[in-house]
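About this split. The held-out portion is used to measure sequence recovery: a designer receives only the C-alpha cells and must propose an amino acid at every position. Recovery is the fraction of positions where the proposal matches the reference. Here is one held-out target exactly as it appears in the evaluation file.
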C-alpha cells in the first residue's frame, strides 16, 4: 500500500491561531527561489513584496512594478518553499479601480503562482474591496500607515500618526480592514503610541504585523536585503542582522585579485582527460 505523506503549508487562517495563542508571527520578504528556501523553515509567511522594484530593479519607487513582475517572482518563491505561507503584493494600479478589478487580478495571482494570499495597501477606503475578495475566496493581508504606493500623495516616505488625528485615522483604517475580513494587517512606519494602541486593541481581529511599528504587534516583517546588510541604505527601523554587502565585496575583490594573478582557476578547478 502506498503511503503519501503530505506536508501542509501554513495557511492564512493559521496566523489567526498564532495570534490567539500569543505566538509571534515571523515574516520576511523574498523574491527568489534560493533565498526563499533559506527562509522557509524559519518564517510563518514570506512576502513577495513589490519592494522588489526598488531592491531588485533599482527603481525609485514601487509604482512601476507590474502584475507580471510579481507573478514571475512569486512563482520562483513558491518553487523554493514548501512550508511557509506565501503572500504576494498587489502592485500599484492592479486593484484600486474597483473590487472587480482587484478580484480578477488577485485571482490571476493565486491561479498562476499557487500562493496562499495577496496583500493590498490602503485603509478604510479599500474595506469594500477587501470584503469583496474575502467573500470570493481570496485571503487578504492589509497594509496601513506608511504605504509606499502612495508616496506621491503622502509627499515622500513619511512616518505616519504624528498629526493630531493620526491615532483616530489609523485606528479607523485598521478596524475597517479587519472588519472587512483581512486575516492580517502590515503596519508600516507608524509612531509608537499609535502603533501600540492598534496592536493592543481588542477590536482588531486581524493579526498585526509590524515594520517600523511597535514590538507589541503580533508579528514582525523586514525586507530581507535590508536586514542582511545587502542594501547600502535602509530606514531607521531596520536592524542589520548581517553584513552581506561587505562580505560580497570582499569575495569579489578576492576573485578579481586571483584571476589577475593567474591563481584562479587552480588545478582542482580544471577538467582533465579521462
Ligand atoms: O513590498 C514590501 O516589501 C512590503 C514590506 C515592506 C511589508 O510591503
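Reference sequence for scoring:
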Amino acid at each position: 500500500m502506498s503511503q503519501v505523506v503530505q506536508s501542509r503549508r501554513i495557511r492564512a487562517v493559521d496566523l489567526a491561531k498564532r495570534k490567539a495563542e500569543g505566538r509571534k508571527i515571523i515574516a520576511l520578504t523574498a523574491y527568489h527561489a534560493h533565498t526563499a528556501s533559506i527562509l522557509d523553515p524559519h518564517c510563518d509567511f514570506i512576502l513577495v513584496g513589490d519592494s522588489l522594484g526598488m531592491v531588485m530593479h533599482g527603481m525609485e519607487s514601487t509604482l512601476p512594478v507590474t502584475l507580471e513582475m510579481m507573478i514571475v517572482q512569486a512563482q520562483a518563491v513558491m518553487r523554493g518553499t514548501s512550508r511557509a505561507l506565501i503572500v504576494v503584493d498587489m502592485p500599484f494600479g492592479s486593484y484600486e479601480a474597483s473590487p472587480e478589478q482587484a478580484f480578477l487580478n488577485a485571482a490571476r495571482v493565486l491561479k498562476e503562482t499557487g500562493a496562499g494570499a495577496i496583500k493590498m495597501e490602503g485603509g478604510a477606503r479599500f474595506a469594500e474591496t477587501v470584503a469583496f475578495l474575502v467573500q470570493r475566496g481570496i485571503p487578504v493581508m492589509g497594509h496601513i500607515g506608511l504605504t509606499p504606493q502612495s508616496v506621491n500623495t503622502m509627499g515622500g516616505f513619511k512616518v505616519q500618526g504624528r498629526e493630531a488625528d493620526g491615532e483616530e485615522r489609523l485606528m479607523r483604517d485598521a478596524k475597517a480592514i479587519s472588519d472587512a475580513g483581512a486575516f492580517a494587517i502590515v503596519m508600516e512606519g507608524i509612531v509608537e503610541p499609535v502603533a501600540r494602541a492598534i496592536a493592543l486593541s481588542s477590536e482588531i481581529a486581524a493579526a498585526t504585523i509590524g515594520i517600523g511599528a511597535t514590538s507589541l504587534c503580533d508579528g514582525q516583517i523586514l525586507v530581507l536585503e535590508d536586514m542582511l546588510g545587502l542594501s547600502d541604505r535602509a530606514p531607521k527601523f531596520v536592524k542589520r542582522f548581517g553584513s552581506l554587502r561587505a562580505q560580497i565585496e570582499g569575495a569579489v575583490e578576492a576573485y578579481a585579485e586571483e584571476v589577475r594573478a593567474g591563481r584562479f582557476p587552480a588545478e582542482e578547478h580544471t577538467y582533465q582527460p579521462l
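Annotator remark: Residues 29, 47, 49-51, 89, 143, 186, 188, 211, 221, 223 surround 3-methyl-2-oxobutanoic acid (CB under 6 Å).
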